[in-house]
Specification:
heterodimer; A: 672 residues; Amino acid/polyamine transporter I; 2 domains; 5-stranded parallel sheet; 63% helix; B: 157 residues; alpha+beta; 5-stranded mixed barrel; APC_K+_Transporter (chain A); transmembrane helix (chain A); AA/rel_permease1 (chain A); membrane (chain A)
Chain lengths: 672, 157
């Protein structure tokens, strides 16, 4: 029978596409030149906002502090190189793609692994929120009229990414490669063009060069150090996404680990030089960035442009097509960065649900072989964040990177353990030296990232990071709870070693009857066919007239099984039946009671409003009784079989009836 | 038809104590109410489900009709029972004619079987009834065959 097309189903097909068969799930391997853009878009895209965030924090102390930018950018660059070097060790040691979660679980135990997982989940969500908000902000810098619609735009962008992922854009190489390379190229052109202009004696002047900044306070001594650390913490956003490659090692062409390590090195080099270049141009062009309220001299009705937009305008000129290209490409790569989270989060969620920390539904692949439930979950959280924080990258960034650094620290500490363990059983001199070197690198990485984590927590806690600090343990506890539940269920369900299947000694079957119609007759026929040890029909006495009519009908049709009428002094249906079933059951503790429920199936939901769902309610109540089996005997109405099987089903019903009537009266012996 | 509330409560509580002393658990046992304030009684009435309340009412009737609580019947004993018919089972035409019912009086149940009858007018579920007969055991259950019955008036009659 052809499937009846429903409106919901058709909408889904249009949006998501036709389902894909399971054998299409092949792991496509990527060469380095494609793998770099696929995995690096997140890390590279932070160039678009890292400089700006540093400047924004420093602006609190007024223009005088901007000369510190250089040092802060240097520190961030150094940190980036250290983290990349550490992750190159991870990639070699754990090429299976489990990432930080696997490293931490293997070396530091499942509790730490779970910490990493909750941190990463928070951060994937924030990656989406921050990247999309920032991308939309850059788009709005090119087209200022969009400034009043950023929230709607951001939500729309997330919705589109969600949809694309539901369709199953599985890291499809070139689609990612072009925008990423365009972005790298555009930034490179901008940096070299700017360098050439400065070298030939031109002065870069950003549009905000004349703005003055209302200093929030006079910073010196400890307060100054704290502000600088805060700026550094904001700049560390440039580090997000470095771990993406370590999760994606299986996707590389062989030799996987080596290629992944090389790609990581390339990523580090490119990201650091782009970051340095943009920061240098921003300083050369005297870009003055601050909260809109603190900027003095902004033409009224204008939102200040993003730093990268200002740099591009100062280098290329305000109406140059290159400026628009750069803004567009920046927005695009930020969207792609959000997309990497859409790759990472569902995979992490599926690994976690495989290990029993998250609901099983997250482990199943949808129609298009994507982890649909994980994708929807991520998109829901990200949209909530964007709406709550009004799509402001600056506010969202305060929550960001706590999670990343928690996972950095855990995985690097885990790597130290890993090397310690291997060193204990290794006697070859050369390999020992190699391991010692790797351990040193990981130790440096652990030390650096731990320091940065402390700095980030200390400086951002009051600015919003506390939300993450609260959310992570909550997620941790929820996942532990889920795991406990699954474990206790599994323990309860496992049969003991000497367990033998015993058959119930007696099967007392009852058929629920309200009226003597076709569904009832079919249920009676079916119940008799199962040959229970005892069989009776049961009805509830709601209206004595109806009951009397049923009894007469019963006699008239000579139904060969006894009919029991249950009194219902309070006009209930469910309770008297449940009580009756309970009494039957307590009689013989070895028995099974089977309750046959005739049900007619309606084709449309609005039809169901017209029928009270007493059978459903009864079924759900009976399922909680021990040693009671509920059997639904469906009877499809014409509307439910879509006009095709109507003749068939009614003839089947008639057959059931005929069988019931023609049966010789020996069934009376059923009741001993 | 029913004793005033307070008397009913104390009476049934007393009966319960009696049954417990003899090592039998009444079927509709409910946590013993302390004979405390009227407020507390009100609360326990609100907290009790209708099934338990009905059990209490039925037990009060046993005493009024000077009948034996089913929970206290012994095998092969001639008894007089008062209660309500919880279920009535009509046998199919094909078999031996008999009408079965289940009598409940708040302390226990007994199967009532009238042989040779398919239907007795008035013997219907929910009916209050008074029976005299000899208690036997059928499949580990108390049962009475062909009792003398007396339909009791209900409000609607």
């Amino acid at each position: 029978m052809p499937r009846v097309p429903s409106l919901m189903g058709m909408t889904k097909r249009v949006l998501v596409g036709q389902p894909v068969r399971s054998e299409m799930l092949g792991e496509a391997t990527l060469p380095k030149k494609i793998a770099l853009p696929v995995f690096a878009s997140d890390a590279l895209s932070s160039v678009a906002y890292a400089t700006e965030e540093i400047l924004l924090v420093l602006s609190a102390g007024g223009l005088a502090l901007f000369h510190f930018t250089w040092y802060i950018a240097g520190a961030v660059g150094l940190l980036m190189l250290v983290v990349v070097a550490s992750y190159r060790q991870n990639v070699h040691a754990y090429p299976s793609g489990g990432g930080d979660y696997e490293v931490a679980t293997t070396n530091l135990g499942p509790r730490v692994g779970l910490t990493v997982a909750s941190a990463l989940m928070v951060d994937y969500t924030l990656t989406v929120a921050v990247s999309v908000s920032s991308g939309v902000a850059n788009l709005a810098s090119a087209i200022p009229s969009l400034n009043s619609h950023v929230v709607v735009l951001s939500v729309a962008v997330i919705a589109v990414i969600t949809l694309m992922n539901l369709r199953g854009v599985r890291e499809s190489g070139t689609a990612f490669a072009i925008p990423t390379y365009c972005f790298i190229g555009a930034i490179a052109i901008m940096i070299s063009w700017g360098a050439v202009r400065i070298a030939t004696g031109h002065h870069l002047v950003a549009e905000s060069a004349n703005y003055r900044i209302h200093a929030a306070g006079n910073y010196s001594g400890l307060a100054l150090a704290f502000l600088l650390l805060r700026a550094f913490a904001s700049g560390c956003t440039a580090l997000t996404g470095v771990e993406a490659i370590s999760n994606g090692v299986p996707a590389f062409k062989a030799p996987k680990s080596k290629n992944a390590a090389t790609t990581l090195a390339l990523l580090g080099g490119i990201a650091v030089s782009m970051f340095a270049g943009v920061t240098a141009l921003a300083l050369a062009g005297h870009v003055h960035a601050a909260d809109a309220a603190d900027l003095i001299g902004v033409p009224s009705g204008q939102t200040p442009r993003t730093v990268i937009a200002q740099v591009a305008r100062s280098v290329f000129g305000g109406s140059s097509p290159l400026f628009y290209v750069l803004q567009f490409v920046t927005a695009l790569i930020l969207v792609l960065a959000a997309n990497t989270a859409f790759n990472g989060f569902p995979v992490l969620a599926s690994i976690l649900s495989r290990d029993g920390y998250l609901p099983r539904q997250l482990h199943t692949r949808g129609d298009r072989l994507a982890f649909s439930n994980g994708i929807l979950l991520l998109s829901g959280f990200a949209i909530t964040l964007v709406v709550v924080f009004k799509a402001s990258p600056t506010r969202l960034i305060q929550l960001y990177i706590v999670g990343v650094f928690v996972s950095f620290v855990c995985s690097q500490t885990g790597m130290i353990r890993h090397w310690n363990r291997l060193l204990a059983g290794e006697s070859d001199r050369g390999r020992r030296n190699h391991m010692l070197r790797s351990r040193t690198i990981n130790a440096i990485g652990a030390g650096f990232t731990a320091t940065v984590l402390v700095i980030v927590l200390a400086t951002k806690f009051m600015k919003g990071a506390w939300i993450v600090v609260v959310a992570m343990p909550l997620i941790w506890l929820v996942m532990r709870g889920i795991q406990r539940h699954y474990e206790s269920v599994a323990v309860e369900l496992t049969p003991p070693e000497d367990f033998k299947v015993t058959m119930p000694s007696n099967n007392h079957a009852i058929v629920l009857v309200s009226k003597l119609h076709l569904p009832t007759l079919r249920a009676i026929g079916y119940a008799r066919a199962t040959r229970p040890s005892r069989l009776e029909a049961v009805t509830v006495d709601l209206e004595s007239a109806d009951t009397e009519a049923l009894r007469r009908d019963w006699e008239h049709r000579a139904i060969p099984i006894p009919l029991t009428v249950i009194a219902s002094p309070y006009r209930e249906i469910t309770r008297p039946i449940v009580e009756y079933v309970k009494r039957l059951r307590t009689e013989n503790p070895n028995d099974i009671v089977t309750v046959f429920i005739p049900e007619y199936i309606l084709g449309h939901w609005w039809e169901q409003l017209l029928h009270n769902q007493s059978a459903l309610r009864l079924k759900s109540r009976l399922l909680f009784q021990r040693r009671v089996v509920v059997a639904s005997v469906p009877y499809q109405l014409r509307s439910a079989v879509g006009g095709q099987g109507d003749t068939k089903s009614s003839s089947a019903g008639a057959a059931a009836q005929a069988q019931t009537e023609n049966q010789p009266p020996k069934a009376a012996t059923n009741r001993k | 038809m029913r004793a005033p509330d307070g008397a009913d409560a104390t009476a049934s509580a007393a009966r319960r104590d009696e049954t417990r002393a003899r090592g039998e658990e009444p079927q509709a046992a409910r946590p013993a109410r302390a004979p405390g304030s009227a407020l507390r009684r009100l609360f326990s009435r609100l907290a009790a489900d209708p099934h338990e309340l009905q059990a209490d009412e039925l037990q009060a009737e046993i005493q009024a009709a000077e009948a034996v609580p089913i929970g206290q019947c012994r095998d092969r004993e001639q008894v007089c029972l008062v209660g309500t018919l919880r279920t009535v089972t009509f046998r199919p035409h094909a078999g031996v004619p008999a009408l079965e019912a289940e009598l409940w009086d708040g302390t226990g149940t007994v199967d009532v079987i009238w042989l040779g009858r398919r239907n007795i007018p008035g013997v219907s579920p929910g009916r209050s009834i008074k029976l005299r007969g000899r208690v036997t055991t059928l499949r580990g259950h108390r049962a009475i065959y062909n009792p003398i019955y007396e339909l009791r008036a209900t409000v609607s009659d």
